[in-house]
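## Example record

The block below lists the input lines for one assembly entry, exactly as stored, with component labels intact.
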Amino acid sequence: MNTGELKMSWARQYMPVLGEIRKRFEADKPLSDTKIAMALHVEAKTAVLVETLAAGGAEVYITGCNPLSTQDDVAQALNSVNGVHCFAKRACSVEEYYGGIDKVLDANPTVTIDDGMDLIHRLHTERRELLDNITGGCEETTTGIHRLRSMAADGKLEFPVIAVNDTPMKRCFDNVHGTGESALSAVMITTNTLIGGKWFVVAGYGYCGRGLAKMAHGLGAKVIVTEIDPRRALEAHMDGYHVMTMDEAAKTGDIFVTTTGNTSIITGRHFPLMKDGAILSNAGHFNVEIDIPWLEANKEGFEQRDGIDTYVIKGKKISVLAEGRLVNLAVPKGMGHPVEVMDLSFALQALCSEYIKNEGQKLSGGVYEVPNEIDITVASLKLSSLDVSIDKLTEYQEKYMTSWDIGT
Amino acid sequence: MNTGELKMSWARQYMPVLGEIRKRFEADKPLSDTKIAMALHVEAKTAVLVETLAAGGAEVYITGCNPLSTQDDVAQALNSVNGVHCFAKRACSVEEYYGGIDKVLDANPTVTIDDGMDLIHRLHTERRELLDNITGGCEETTTGIHRLRSMAADGKLEFPVIAVNDTPMKRCFDNVHGTGESALSAVMITTNTLIGGKWFVVAGYGYCGRGLAKMAHGLGAKVIVTEIDPRRALEAHMDGYHVMTMDEAAKTGDIFVTTTGNTSIITGRHFPLMKDGAILSNAGHFNVEIDIPWLEANKEGFEQRDGIDTYVIKGKKISVLAEGRLVNLAVPKGMGHPVEVMDLSFALQALCSEYIKNEGQKLSGGVYEVPNEIDITVASLKLSSLDVSIDKLTEYQEKYMTSWDIGT
Amino acid sequence: MNTGELKMSWARQYMPVLGEIRKRFEADKPLSDTKIAMALHVEAKTAVLVETLAAGGAEVYITGCNPLSTQDDVAQALNSVNGVHCFAKRACSVEEYYGGIDKVLDANPTVTIDDGMDLIHRLHTERRELLDNITGGCEETTTGIHRLRSMAADGKLEFPVIAVNDTPMKRCFDNVHGTGESALSAVMITTNTLIGGKWFVVAGYGYCGRGLAKMAHGLGAKVIVTEIDPRRALEAHMDGYHVMTMDEAAKTGDIFVTTTGNTSIITGRHFPLMKDGAILSNAGHFNVEIDIPWLEANKEGFEQRDGIDTYVIKGKKISVLAEGRLVNLAVPKGMGHPVEVMDLSFALQALCSEYIKNEGQKLSGGVYEVPNEIDITVASLKLSSLDVSIDKLTEYQEKYMTSWDIGT
Amino acid sequence: MNTGELKMSWARQYMPVLGEIRKRFEADKPLSDTKIAMALHVEAKTAVLVETLAAGGAEVYITGCNPLSTQDDVAQALNSVNGVHCFAKRACSVEEYYGGIDKVLDANPTVTIDDGMDLIHRLHTERRELLDNITGGCEETTTGIHRLRSMAADGKLEFPVIAVNDTPMKRCFDNVHGTGESALSAVMITTNTLIGGKWFVVAGYGYCGRGLAKMAHGLGAKVIVTEIDPRRALEAHMDGYHVMTMDEAAKTGDIFVTTTGNTSIITGRHFPLMKDGAILSNAGHFNVEIDIPWLEANKEGFEQRDGIDTYVIKGKKISVLAEGRLVNLAVPKGMGHPVEVMDLSFALQALCSEYIKNEGQKLSGGVYEVPNEIDITVASLKLSSLDVSIDKLTEYQEKYMTSWDIGT
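Predicted structure tokens for the full assembly:
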């Protein structure tokens, strides 16, 4: 095996849910006559999804969804899988990045799988001629769903898209545990700093933020949460975290991680307030949460290490990891989300691709929830792989839950 | 001050949100011409809600919602508050219990506030002549909402009811933190057993269950979760708990707490499997989660202590706290939910009562969500009482969140 | 059974280690011809120790070690046990307290068991005529050991005393878990306030303090630690707590618990700095950690509730639990340490009493460690009652650990 | 700056205690006329210690203490520091390894600093002619101290050695937090597997083990502890972990980390019991805790990835990280202990080197504790760098703590 294949073999071992789906796909070929266009982080776990789809009979065309997240040996290994065509390349230029997207679209796909909506965006702007052929798509990220909902609200989304991101089986695991663990380990291994005792600032108390907060807290950090929603802010407070504005957090924090999915979270107003040695990183999809252009424009000095850019601002050193890109993937040692978590998310993708292929024609343009039975199937397959059994409602209990006629 | 008043003065001090609302209510009297019927746990915190409603101009008629939860000194103190009429009595018989409900209804109320739906149930069965006068109601518990939704689905609910229980400001605090902390401390103080190192079984991984699981875990317990929903089961697994069926848990558990809101969770099938010394309790609304009648019918011996009934089953001692009733209220030392949590829940009740008085006429029979602005108001008042400031979206950020036109 | 016996029967069930020891004691009567004088908290768990000692053949004379901690029904039940003479009484005056100690000493004991050193102190001051008859003693608390070591350093301790408190099997369980859990539940059940989100101040980061800190943290509190030792302070910092002086903590804290074993921890300098509604309690042995006399002398108002004294200082309400006495025992609902923890501590007492009876004559006056084999025996009996097996060193491993001749 | 210097500059920024010491060393040159021989992990943090010693006037000769832990760019950067001579090389052969040690000793040193006792061992065996010139030494690890104490017990240790490892300021931070965080992040980043929900086996519940257990638990793992000491086993049980023998743990565990400092912890008896996909690693000093030779001799198949060796045993895949060497240093992405933790440990080394230079002549051969005032100094410098203030005993409190004359 070459290194890409070794990585895929490692990932495959810890992805039992996709493994079960693959068995059925190989037998039934439910994706025959399907061309799937994908823009995802091309690394070992994604490759196991890709080979699963191909095992189901699909032709798969894939490129990256982030200029720094492709692993070239995996891309190469993918190209030797039957029915798979991979165009991703690490450290590509913006032109190469969009070139990859175009090559994927040139296949005239019927189904799309996106991680950040770049593929769908391209289809609706530069490549509108291909829209007619699309049955539907799937989107993986909070950020992508945000953008798709805005698009749908404007009446501009021309085919049905499954919001894989929003389903409980994705958010409660991929966002909470996946982002939580992998962003934390990426920060630890890149900076070699201690988490215990630190002021650890988490911007945003959504699913990603609360996972990260809990884990940093579990290592002994004092966690600061910034929020815009008073209810989430109060939840963070009662969970034992320190809630404050970013203006205040900037003065206190040792390590910062943004998880909002919004823009301009840490900006030129905040950098000059920070302590010497502050470390900044982003776990949201796009690199707009930390205002790097401001740092570039205002720096008094600069040092560059593996995955760390240190800016001197007002005489103090402020270090940004991975140029403000998704820290768990974009630092040199980054591995992305843990394998087991992607097993769940990608099992959803595999089953939603099958669903959209079969049902997409009946749906108008818009954003759709993952069908509940798919969610339940993935959860049940995972529990079964863990040998965990759970209770079932008895008939009497079901009746009790739907009756209203029983008093105190 | 007598002891009831001393208890109310203590509670009032830790209920700043109701305090703020009371200031406005006293000035504006928004509840004048309103007769409010209430069936709630009559203790100090409820009393602060009652006096707040009365301060807003309402006539308030209140009785208990559980035969064991009334504190007589508080009931007495309430009766000396202007505009308040209290009929609750501790350790009352079933007849006295429904007698209290009838006395409250005799006032011909316009608004109801329920904790378990007994009041609304009585209105729709025995006291239908009063229905015409009702503008609407509020319901506090998961259990009550379940019953109301079933009723509404059958087309039997004749006035609008606000599902206070379901709103984030209630569930994320009252259920998670309120039930979590108070059920745990009630078990600890009643049994004097150690939590650290124990197998602590939580039935149900809803809001109450996950609060309780987290806190028992925080004291060093090994937590077992039983569930019927595979997604929640998997969440519990990833959160570090041991997921299994109740059949398995019965053999392992040292301490059991049911939080499902359903019936027949621990039954005659489970008791004989248990370890000698097992301790059982219920934190759900009704005393149907543990099958006490089975224990009574099958016991080989019996001992009774303060709040603890010990049954001998197959030669082993199995102890049930508070006769399987809501453990945090019904054990002799029980104090119910912590004050600060009820401040939030009761602030919702106060504002929803005002809302239903003003808007109820426009709504048809059915279950309604708490209006979002009420939820936000309560959260903001609480944050402000804590001197916690949070961020606000900038115009640019709002635009970013609603646009879809920005690529990688 | 009367209530005292019911309490003892409850405790006995969760004390398997004493149960095993009792079996051997009943068979071998190792304590025949021994008169044991005890001053301990007289409640159900202590009673199980007392009946174990009596089962071993000892005559036991016991009184309380704290004016508020005796449970009268247990005292009464003890008096009906063969060979036991109990003089303890709840809410006794200072005269009655020392009267109880004198009655115990009137028996002319050969072995003492102390919880705070009051018995040994009395023997060395007012009752020196009895010293000759004493073989040795055991002391349970940090505070008592402190005093005994000072006494020994002055050459004033005239018989050998086993420092039960200092042995790992006591400190790591009784102090960490026993004080931690029971002080926390006592505060929760007495005040009905929420722990989640609160600033919870722990004075002292010894065994008791770190147990309490960890558990309050586990419920969602933000924990502040005050310390005098820079190493412990740094440990607390790295463990995720907020380390500061009491002068600073006084301004921030919502709930305070002192665990230092020292005096004058929260004083007249601190009270006026506190927030309205601050709650103060003590988990150290003596009631000198919070300066109650200052509060009494400077109060502008006063309210008294069950277990809570509220003082008005500078217009703000400051509440002290249990008059500053050991909060887990002295609040009205207090149950003292959890049963399982006292099973370990009292198993040490039982075995140390046997040891001092047999070996005390060979030892000169001074403070002695618990013999290591007793410590190991108690740990092993407990593990065995839990059905927990552990590894054993192989011969090869033992050799490896004692060799120095193996390089990289 | 070259990459070695960039790494040193990064580390220096997070080592404020060594920074303070360096200021004094530069001014006072307390180590002039001292030749220091060192065998340590040669990476950025060690380099900051080395330059601090050199700043104090010492000539420093350094080589590695582990064939896989040297960073060559740092070794090179060190060689350009005045007064420093570095002989370490990554991935060196055993001959080169001992060659490095010999070159260091060729300088005829007066003081030694060891991490695993290889230097002192060589001095007492192959290079005894140099012993006369040695004033004393310092040892960093648990393992080294074990060996030194055995040596001293045999009367074979010919100069005084400070047991830096055993002092609270080392064990409570370096072992608990340093090993805990860095072993965990090394496992996470190397394997890309999820920690949440996993059975995580920690062999040994000493300082390293309990740090690691707490942190894995903090990420949502179910932690299994194996122990040989019943007291530590019971502590682990009460802390919420699952205590069992390695024979049982082998069947259950998903991820294993050994931290015992002993040999033969996971052996040929255990591997065949393991689950398919089990991951094994070692955080103890030497690579003898996992029996790699057995795996090599009995494997049915083999795959090699970056830092992961996968053996097929009984048809199941068992993966060992870093060939069973110290996982936080020896995996390809390993960074060793966090910077802030090494700041404390190396500050102890710097001050102990100064102490042994000044006082070593007065001491006979043997193992000595770190002088208490050095421990306190390091703690105080660290607290001061964090702007943390702590309380001081008043005269009255000191008197109280040493008196025994104050009763209840």
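The domain at 176-330 of chain C is CATH 3.40.50.720 (Rossmann fold). Chain C has 16 helices and 15 strands.
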